[in-house]
Specification:
Elements: H1 2-13, H2 23-27, H3 31-45, H4 58-71, H5 80-92, H6 95-107, H7 109-122, H8 129-132, H9 135-163, H10 168-197, H11 202-256, H12 259-300, H13 306-332, H14 338-387, H15 395-453, H16 458-589, H17 593-597, H18 600-675
Helix pairs in contact: 1-6, 3-6, 4-5
């Protein structure tokens, strides 16, 4: 109980309650304060219940709270009489009733918020059958049910979107970025429109550009359709190749197999499937049904506390002790006649377990084989996508190997040709080197002759002059062409400048007038702005003073209202206490013994006497237990020794029985050999 109260206090001190309780202040809360606290927690779960209970009758409060707790599927512990006591305790604000409800609500606040939200739309209104005979009412009820189903579907989609990772902040950022891009695109389009309007026949050009865009989009769609058709054709060819491979494998299987082997395989499959259908699957189904039944039974029961769990553990220990006693009795009544049957039973159980294990292994092997086949198909598809061909088998692979061999011979021939060309290239390179050497020797001889004749450098100068003259002629041609182009460009630029000046002259005149007008309007705007700022400052100061006055009056009103409610609540509490005191005095003074027994004083005196008697009995019982503790411990030790002795005898008996069984088997085997 203390753990429960501590959990409640911790949760109430956190957001969104912020009550700042401790264990003492929480335990000292009165009934009305506890009810208001419970109502605040319910109001946090369902905002419709965020009301002040002092403004409504206790019956209305209890009815409203019971309705919400029923929607939230709260199950109070106990039977029907306890349920009536729970309702009475909820009306009076009893702590043993309010504390478990608070603990249950604060444990699962988020889940209960969701349930309360869904209950607003999914709690079906029960319409009487006689009203449903009317067509209008029936149609409205049908529409109501359809809308309820639509709400369920939308809520599921919303939950899926929430769990998918998309947040509202990211969506808002994306929307803002898209809006900014849209504004930029609009501005660019406006600028381009202004540029295009100055061009002649811009409407016709825009129409041609629009038609070009449409044709390009059509071309892209046709290309996409073509690609899709190619993919479909590719997949169809893949399916055809797979079907052909399967057909070949089936042909090979039919050719290699015999009717006897096929019948044997079919019999094995039939036996295995019949074992699964008749023994394994029904047993698993029965176990699943039992586990489901127990789980449903556990779910249907109310929430258990630690005390309930302790009681269940005690019961389980008692049942286990009874089972052990029954097993011991059975072992004591054990007869040697049943030994053979027990051995056969053990063998049968071992065989059945082996059979089940082998069946599970076979089923796992089949599942593994099917998964391996699926992986093989995936790998073949991936290989086809990467290399463009299927994995070859049989004759196709042999044909592919022959093709590779022919390509290998062709490759060797080409390699020989490349080697011959490389050798010829080496010869030509050597010839070139020799010719260069001869050219250098001839140049040296020519230079020596020129030195003898006194005209050294003549051949070199002649070559340079020829080269320079060729370069000069090329440069002259390029200069002539560039001068012609520049003159044409200058003419074009002059004409364009003249046209632009002529077209811009009226616009410049209008622009001058608009500039003058803009200056006048700017001066007028500045004057008006100064007037507006001064007026706005005065109004803002008046508004701030009025707001402060209104705020102060509102605070006074709230304070007075809270004082009134507090005084009214204290008055009602005092009236209730006074009424209780009058009833107590009346019952205590009454000559009727029945009325006197109803008095609280008499009840407490009776309870005190009962507790005193109970304490006396418990002390006597404790005394008896202390006196009998030593003999009982000795008796327990004797029983433990006796249990060890009996266990040792049982083991010796089982060993002797196994040895006798083995001797009987050996004797029977010897007799069979003698007969043979």
């Amino acid at each position: 109980m203390s753990d429960q109260i501590q959990f409640i206090v911790e949760k109430l001190n956190q957001e969104p309650f912020r009550k700042n309780y401790n264990l003492i202040t929480f335990d000292s809360l009165e009934s009305m304060q506890l009810l208001q606290l419970l109502n605040d927690v319910l109001g946090e779960i369902d905002p419709k219940h965020a009301v002040d209970i002092r403004e409504e009758l206790p019956e209305q409060t209890a009815k409203r709270m019971l309705g919400l707790l029923g929607i939230l599927k709260y199950k109070p512990p106990g039977s029907i009489s306890d349920l009536s006591a729970f309702r009475q305790g909820l009306v009076t604000g009893s702590k043993p009733v309010i504390h478990p409800v608070l603990h249950w609500l604060l444990q699962r606040t988020n889940e209960l918020k969701k349930r309360a939200y869904l209950a607003r739309f999914l709690v079906k209104l029960e319409v009487p059958a006689e009203f449903l005979q009317d067509d209008t009412v029936a149609d409205i009820n049908k529409q109501y049910e359809e809308l309820m189903e639509a709400f369920k579907n939308l809520h599921k989609e919303c939950e899926q979107l929430k769990t998918s990772g998309l947040s509202a902040a990211e969506i808002r950022r994306d929307i803002n970025a898209m809006e900014e891009e849209k504004d930029q695109l609009i501005k660019r389009v406006e600028r381009l429109k202004k540029r295009v309007e100055t061009v002649q026949n811009h409407q016709r050009m825009l129409e041609i550009a629009r038609q070009l865009r449409l044709e390009k989009e059509r071309e892209e769609s046709l290309a996409q359709q073509k690609q899709e058709q190619k993919n479909q054709l590719f997949h169809a060819e893949q399916r055809l190749q797979r079907a052909q491979l399967q057909l070949k494998e089936m042909h090979h299987a039919v050719v290699d197999s015999k009717p006897e082997s096929l019948m044997k395989k079919l019999e094995e499959e039939i036996n295995f499937n019949s074992y699964l259908v008749t023994e394994k699957i029904p047993r698993e189904l029965e176990s699943k049904k039992n586990s489901t039944y127990f789980l449903q039974k556990v779910v249907a029961e109310p929430a258990m506390s630690q005390s309930d769990l302790n009681v269940l553990e005690i019961k389980i220990n008692e049942v286990n002790a009874q089972m052990n006693q029954l097993i011991e009795k059975r072992m004591m009544k054990y007869e040697p006649i049943d030994s053979k049957f027990s051995m056969y039973r053990q063998q049968a159980s071992i065989i059945s377990r082996k059979k089940e294990a082998k069946a599970e292994e076979l089923q796992a092997a089949k599942e593994e084989m099917s998964s391996t086949e699926r992986q093989m198909l995936q790998k073949t598809n991936q290989a086809h996508e990467l290399e463009g061909s299927e994995v070859l088998k049989g004759d196709e692979f042999k044909h592919y190997v022959n093709k590779l061999r022919s390509k290998n011979t062709f490759y060797k021939k080409k390699r020989l040709e490349i080697a011959e060309i490389t050798a010829e290239y080496g010869v030509l390179q050597r010839t070139e080197e020799l010719l260069k050497q001869r050219h250098e020797a001839i140049q040296q001889q020519l230079q020596a002759i020129e030195d003898k004749k006194g005209i050294s450098g003549y051949s070199y100068t002649q070559e340079e002059l020829e080269r320079v003259s060729a370069v000069k002629s090329e440069m002259d041609e390029m200069k002539g062409r560039t001068l012609d182009n520049m003159s044409e460009m200058v003419k074009k630029l002059n004409t364009m400048v003249a046209e632009k000046k002529a077209s811009l002259a009226p616009v410049i005149k209008e622009l001058r007038q608009l500039r003058q007008k803009c200056q006048e309007l700017t001066q007028e705007c500045d004057e008006k702005k100064i007037q507006y700022d001064s007026c706005a400052a005065g109004l803002e100061s008046n508004r701030s003073t009025l707001e402060q006055e209104v705020k102060g009056l509102l605070e006074e009103c709230v304070q007075e209202e809270s004082n009134y409610r507090y005084i009214n609540c204290m008055k009602t509490n005092l009236e209730i206490q006074l009424q209780r005191a009058k009833e107590e005095v009346k019952a205590y003074v009454s000559p009727d013994p029945q009325e006197r027994r109803k008095a609280i004083r008499e009840q407490y005196t009776r309870m005190i006497l009962e507790q005193e008697n109970l304490g006396k009995k418990l002390r006597e019982k404790q005394k008896v237990v202390r006196e009998s503790h030593g003999p009982n411990m000795k008796q327990i030790k004797m029983w433990q020794d006796f249990e060890r002795l009996m266990e040792c005898k049982r083991e010796c008996f089982l060993k002797q029985q196994n040895q006798t069984a083995i001797g009987q088997v050996i004797q029977e085997g010897g007799k069979d050999r003698l007969v043979l």
